[in-house]
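Hey, I was hoping to borrow your eyes for a little while. There's a protein on my desk that I can't quite get my head around. The fold is given in discrete form, as structure tokens running alongside the sequence. I'd be grateful if you could look everything over and explain what you see. Here's the protein in full, and shout if anything looks odd to you:
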Amino acid sequence: MFRLFFLLAFFTIQNWLQAQYYKRIIPANPIKDIILKIDTLAFSYQEDTIHYLGSSHLPLRYEKDDEICELNIFLQPSINLDKLELLPSVDFEMIDSLIQFNYDFYRTRLKFHQLTNSKFISLIFRHKKDASSYEHLTEIKLLPYQQTIASIYPKDKELYIGEEKIFEIATNHPQNIFVDNLWKSTEKFDYRITRSGSKIRLHIVAKELGLHKFVGYIPLAKPVIQKDKQVSNFLTIEEQFDVRSSRLAFLEIEPKDITLDESLRKTGIEVQISNHRQLKMQRTYRLEAKEEPGGALIAELFTKAPLSNDQVLCILRPYEHHKSTEGYLYIKDRDEAKFLTNFSISPKTQINQISILREGREWTNSLVVNPGEIIYVKLEGVALHKGQFKFLGATQLKTDSSVSENMMMIKLKIPLSIANNKIEVLDHDQPTGFFLIVKEYQRPHAFDFITIDYGNNPKYLHKIVGPILYNKPIRDIVIDFDRDSIDSREQLYGKQIFSIDIKITNVRGQLVDLKRIDRVTVCPENCVREAFYRGKDCQTEPIRLNNIVSTKTFDLEDWSKIELFFQHLNEKYESDGYRQKTEIYLQRLSNFDIDVSFPAGLIIKKFKENRYGTLGGVSLAVIAQFKFYRPEKIAQLRPYRIGIGTIALDAFNFSSNNTTTRDLGIVVLGSIFPQKRDTKLSFPLYGGFGYLMQADDFFFLLGPGIRISL
């Protein structure tokens, strides 16, 4: 007895603990209701739930594939959540954040993507009651639908046995109608649904005489919901037709499209045709487009033997082209029409011409394409609608065959990494003899990949503005290339082909050296097409100027000018290339030379005398002097000079008068010159001090002079 009591107590406590555990792990659904609002419509999960495919769904009626709706989430009474979030999905995006209003409900806005093509759309919420609880997921399945209607409005309700009649289906949502182009059979009709552009068409073939009601089912991509909340994936079209017999029996033939070539004219092709009690075996019938005798022979039909499926195996020998849209074909025994049939005899698919269109350009017959570009390819030829074209190695984005049977446009993307230099055009995996030629991009790129190093670290050519004044010896000028910066994944340029003209002149403008590098080819590196650019013509080493010019840069005179002129070879490109010129001057801040001048009218003050001397005559000064250049100007001297040398005072005074002050002195002499250029005769102002040999005295001097430039 005690054991029984103990076991009952144990199981009771265990069940209570498990209940408490699962209550914590799997709490009750905290969401009371979900309301979706689109325009003036509102859908409540509590009131509008629909049971579909074994699950509860929240219906959502939409008009556009990218509808925007308001989502309201209401919680159960007396439930506060520590966390509630809507998990992301590829089917929609949250436009607003999920915001809680007064602890009553949450609200956000959603924008859906491709509702018609999306399957199994759900709102999945992740929530947690408090910090000690586990996270839990709640799924709300959505049922997007469009209230699609469809009907036909036949002007003529008469059909004929075996005749295919086409009606346009009037519908408010043509994109929601699923088109499979397959024939469906009922007891008295065959029908199928096709799409032509934005129009939906119903094809009907009557099989039995009399007044019959046609009932057809149109499949939908998204369902419709009836008033009783029943979900239907089909629409029904009903119409009454009066089916009449033609004077001639109509016999179906398969296949319905025969390709005419020379071999079929002789050997023929096996076909099946509907059996008829008047159709004779082992008989050759003529097929003509006219009922009257004397029509042109389109084909011959030889009946071999009946088959078990109420068909007759025949040999068809086509001779001429025929389109089923042009009218019936009459099956004649000699010149008498016995039956009707209809099918197409079309020529073999053949491409006669290919054209290419690039955005912003005109159509061109050049079949040269570049990696990475998107183009439109226009095929012109015969019976192109039967072709299944592939461009080997290219990505086919879109095909538009709505123009005609003799023209087709295909949108292609040429992959960046395409390895072949030809893109073969195939039809049904067979070569057509046409190719697109893959050619690397060769477009001029700005010269921002060229660097010039003249001794002060490499500089990019495009960043050099104005002439370069360099006041150190130039050991060499190195032209190098940043090959990584030419191509990118967004833009390909290919090989850069250009020339470099080198011109060196001295300070007087006289030509020292002139050289031209006719062709420099720089190939992009570290890019997707690097392997296809490589070649013997690629410049792999820097260009050193001293390896090209006769007069080396370290032998040039002061203020020599080195001109480098870069220019793309335009004949290598479809558009004009870039041109850029840079100049490098061998700048000097000062210069040292021997100057001969003629100071005159000097005021001389000797240290041992208390008075100034009289104005002297023309003296002769030979001075080793420094000249100074303006740092911001090209070969332009400052107005002052300074040097040391000798001066012959009154050197040109040949008078026998003993009062002459002729003497020879050692002097530190400064001079100020006028700033006029190209002046042969100038009058500088001299000043300085020195020592007179004959007078054995130091002195100061100040005065003008004469300077002649040759």
Observations:
- The longest helix spans residues 2-25.
- Helices lie at 2-25, 262-267, 530-533.
- Confidence is low (pLDDT under 50) at residues 19-26.
- The two ends are 141 Å apart (CA to CA).
